[in-house]
Amino acid sequence: MLILLLSFIFNMNLYVILVPVFMIFFFIGFIVPNALARTMALFSQLAGTASSVFGTLTGIIVFL
Predict the structure, then answer these.
(1) How many structural domains comprise the chain?
(2) What is the mean predicted confidence (pLDDT) over 9-23?
(3) Where in the sequence is the domain holding 56, given as residue range(s)?
């Protein structure tokens, strides 16, 4: 949000907004699968439940 506001105040182009957003999504692509693998490793006997809890929490976080 701050980047968008700064782009209106100062004369910035679209790349100032797109590059940080791309970097965020790029690194989230590394973090989320590793977090899911760690969840499965911690609760291997309850893998289905752990997966559903992880998916539910991910959905809630995305919604917020």
Answers:
(1) 1
(2) 81
(3) 2-63
